[in-house]
Automatic annotation (TrEMBL):
Cellular compartments per GO CC: plasma membrane
GO terms, molecular function: high-affinity secondary active nitrite transmembrane transporter activity
GO biological process: nitrite transport
One Pfam family cited in the UniProt record for this chain: Form_Nir_trans
Family membership noted in the UniProt record: Belongs to the FNT transporter (TC 1.A.16) family.
Membrane-related topology note: Multi-pass membrane protein
Localisation: Membrane
This protein's UniProt keywords: Membrane, Transmembrane, Transmembrane helix
Name the UniProt record assigns to this protein: Formate/nitrite transporter FocA, FNT family
Chief localisation class: membrane
């Protein structure tokens, strides 16, 4: 995922008249090719994202390291979101502050070329639909990316939990409140909110790879996490931070506020939440983003 990737050039020339411009279509296509900021077609974007997933699967150790760093970057956003919303009493304003602070995490991941599992779920599914990736390779991609992201996020929040200092007091109260809210939702609610989360997030990823200017790309990358945070949805890696941070604060600082969150598979368990949100995020990115874009690309090419 690099911001300086070159867009493929259109090569096909059609000699029919363009109904919008009145000019021959070959002239219209040439004019688009001469504009370096004209967005890619849906088909070109689909092929580009699918090829990116294949490249990641071909280099598993590199992909794992990119996932570690990507998970830590998501945890950056979690920490900042909790910090800026501490002490804010109005729910809407608190959510807005969290979204603004969290939004840059996805920008960091995409621009730096790191990996986020929810993006890889959609990208790999496009590769499956394009028949350039096998199902077992897709399962391998998702597994490695998920483990890497979780590990990276846990490393970051463990360091913050051990540090204490500014992350105690009112901040610890805020972290406990947000974590308990996410962990305490019914299974069906958490699942559907996870679907909505990647509907937001992976639409922004596709728009990122469709755009050809740096400003447009970063705006689209910012929109995804901004939208899913202020919408109160569930993201598997973000939740590792939101649930893991209060647990680790309790571990290192017994005076920090305690919640009903646990590490395991029981009610309000971190592993339970990871399982539910992983499935919801997969369905949201694959069926509500990747499949529609792939279908549009196929229909346009016909």
């Amino acid at each position: 995922m690099t911001i300086d990737a070159q867009a493929p050039q259109q090569e096909r020339q059609v000699l029919t008249q363009n109904p919008l411009t009145g000019l021959p279509s070959d002239i219209a296509v040439s004019q688009l090719d001469q504009d370096p900021f004209e967005p890619l077609s849906v088909g070109a974007m689909v092929d580009r994202v699918a090829a990116m997933a294949v490249e990641k699967a071909a280099h598993p150790w590199v992909f794992f390291m990119r996932s570690l760093v990507g998970g830590a970057m998501v945890a950056f956003g979690v920490l900042l979101a909790l910090m800026v919303s501490t002490g804010v009493k109005t729910p809407g304003i608190a959510s807005l502050m969290m979204g603004l602070a969290f939004g840059m995490s996805f920008v960091l991941i995409l621009v730096s070329g790191m990996s986020l599992i929810t993006a890889d779920m959609a990208a790999g599914f496009l590769a499956l639909l394009n028949r350039i990736m096998r199902l077992r390779t897709y399962v391998f991609l998702v597994t490695v990316g998920l483990v890497g992201n979780i590990a990276g996020a846990l490393v970051f929040v463990t360091i913050c939990g051990a540090a204490g200092g500014p992350y105690l007091g009112a901040f610890a109260e805020r972290a406990a409140t947000v974590g308990a809210l996410k962990a305490g939702q019914p299974v069906w609610t958490a699942f559907l909110l996870a679907v909505v989360c990647t509907w937001f997030l992976q639409t922004s990823m596709c728009m990122y790879f469709k755009a050809r200017s740096d400003v447009a790309r970063m705006a689209f990358a910012f929109y995804g996490p901004f939208a899913f945070v202020i919408g109160g949805t569930q993201h598997v890696i973000a939740n590792v931070g939101f649930l893991g941070l209060p647990l680790l604060l309790n571990l290192f600082h017994p005076a920090a506020r305690r919640t009903g969150i646990t590490w395991g598979f029981g009610d309000d368990g971190l592993l339970t939440n990871i399982g539910i949100t992983s499935v919801g995020n997969l369905i949201g990115g694959a069926l509500f983003v990747a499949l529609p874009f792939w279908t549009i690309a196929r229909l346009q090419r016909r």
